[in-house]
Amino acid sequence: MTMLEFSSGKGPWTYIGKRKVLNLTGWDILGIVSNPEFQRFLLQKIAEKDLLNRHQYVNGSLETREETTRLFCQYKGFEETVFFAEPYSPFLSIIETLIPQGFTVLIDEDFDPHISSFLRNLSDRIQFFPHNSVESLQKRLEESSSDKHLIFIQTLYPFSSDFAHLKEIIELAGINNFVVVYESWGDGFIGEKGEGLISLLRNLPANLLVTGYYCHILPFPLAYLGGYRTFIELLKNNSVTMKACPSASDLQLEVLKWFVRNVETDNLSIKRVQDNSNYLRYELLSRGFKVLGEFTPLLPLFVGERERALEFQLELLDNGVFVKELTYPFVAPGKSRLLLIPSFLHLKEDLDFAIKKIEEAGKSLGVI
């Protein structure tokens, strides 16, 4: 399948087998991969730095890393940041540094399931609290035998499309506990320039660490860990992972640098995604569907039973619309849903086509 086939004049259509379908699963959400300017930039950098003859995960040069760090810290509101080639190293760096110092980990139960599973295997000092329940978190802190905690939350939870209660949790954490915020679905979507957390808080508190992974919007994505310099230096001095694991490559750093510079001067792609998602949400709500959460680019369409959600997804696929289904164990039994993620590339007629097919399938299956 070529890029031209995927990003046709009618929007992001793709093929499943021989069937052409409208993709609402979140591919190239900001249209960066399909952007001719980005494609020219990438080819130029590949030629300049001979990137095809260098392994993707060879550490980036000091000059490229320092320039990207400066731009990224300014964009995200950090004093310091560290880049990684993949998403798990930031979490491993935090755990291996602070667990030996007596910290207990508390994780929102709707936290990214892949990261949660990874963390669960690292230590027996990990507990979960009910999703977005500040009251339950407070109770866990009061009843805990430890006086030092790491609280893991996400800026935006994709399966429910709701925001973490950031200010309340940060205030509750106080000076003895640290809050680790995973920005994966905040980056590129939240704020006028896709800057994420900083647009919600304005100033990042000293007890906060922020990590993220740009896999939803960038090719050759990298991960990062940012915050106050003293905290980052603590991790650098004590984490074996930070010392031993490869940093982001020149290719990953150049792609991120292009994104930051581009979005600082042109945020039309972010606005277009927001407009498309708002239109899709409003039209589905007006037809009687239950669309969960806030007005964000992520639209969880509640279905209920697992079997009905699978039927819904398959009927949409048969009729030319490709969406994700979320069932147990990703969501609780009886709370299955479809996740719709419109992109910059969708045109109004693409969304109208999807709305028509979703309405027809919803009626035939008794969802509405």
Overall, the morphology is globular
Count of all domains: 2
Instruction: Provide the spatial order of strands within the biggest beta sheet.
Output: 4-12-11-10-7-5-6
Return the CATH architecture of the largest domain: 3-Layer(aba) Sandwich
Approximate strand percentage? 15-25%
| Helical run tally | 14
CATH fold description of the largest domain: Aspartate Aminotransferase, domain 2
CATH C-level name of the largest domain: Alpha Beta
Derived from helix and strand composition plus strand pairing, the structural class reads alpha/beta
Average pLDDT rating: 90
CATH superfamily of the largest domain: Type I PLP-dependent aspartate aminotransferase-like (Major domain)
* Low-pLDDT runs: 1-10
Which percent range fits the helix content?
Answer: 40-55%
Question: What's the β-strand tally?
Answer: 16
Sketch the major β-sheet.
7 strands, mixed
The arrangement of helices and strands along the chain is: HEEEHHEHEHEHEEEHEHEEHHHHEHEEEH
Distance between the termini: 36 Å
Rg, rounded, reads: 21 Å
How would you portray this structure in words?
- This protein has 368 residues and is of the alpha/beta class.
- The chain has two domains: 3-29 and 268-364, Aspartate Aminotransferase, domain 1; 40-265, Aspartate Aminotransferase, domain 2 (3-Layer(aba) Sandwich).
- 42% of the residues lie in helices and 19% in strands.
- It contains 14 helices and 16 strands.
- The protein has helices at residues 3-6, 36-49, 62-76, 89-98, 113-120, 134-143, 166-173, 198-201, 229-238, 240-244, 250-265, 268-286, 306-318, 348-364; strands spanning 7-8, 11-16, 19-23, 80-84, 104-108, 126-129, 149-154, 156-157, 162-163, 178-182, 208-213, 223-227, 299-304, 321-322, 324-326, 336-340.
- The protein has a seven-stranded mixed β-sheet, with helices on both faces.
- Strand 5, helix 5 (113-120) and strand 6 (126-129) form a beta-alpha-beta unit.
- The chain starts with a helix and ends with a helix.
